[in-house]
Amino acid sequence: MGKKIFSFLFFLSVIAVNAQDKKAQDKKNSVKDQIVEVSCGQCQFGMKAPGCDLAVRIDGKSYFVDGTTIDQHGDAHAKDGFCNAVRKAKVSGEIAENRFKTTSFELIEEKRVGSK
């Protein structure tokens, strides 16, 4: 009888620990209204893939973006475009499968020197 109770309690503790790890992992991968660097992953962040794709850099690591594209934010090859400049954006979403799945993406306009 003692072994059964011990086994049952052990089983419950394993389930509880795994559930907590999953919640901690989900929270770690979640991003809410964070200011991040954003640019062309290939041209500016040195990521490997054909073509030019939007990417964000979160905590020093770069991720391709799902939910918006490089072309939805102006000409990528303009002077201040993503292929030529690293910009800032306020984003929300989650990191999953080594990609950033955005639910909110707001490009932050740069202040021009000498203009009011």
Characterization of this structure:
It is built from 1 helix and 5 strands. With about 120 residues, it is of the alpha+beta class. It has a domain of about 80 residues: OB fold (Dihydrolipoamide Acetyltransferase, E2P). Strands 1-2-3-5-4 form a 5-stranded mixed β-barrel. The protein is elongated and about 80 Å long. About 5% of the residues have low confidence.
Which features does this protein show?
116 residues; alpha+beta; 5-stranded mixed barrel
Please outline the helices and strands:
Blueprint lengths: L1 H28 E11 L13 E5 L2 E6 L20 E10 L2 E9 L9
Parallel strand pairs: 3-5
Antiparallel strand pairs: 1-2, 1-4, 2-3, 4-5
Quick description:
The protein has 116 residues and is of the alpha+beta class. The chain has 1 helix and 5 strands; from the N terminus they run αβββββ.
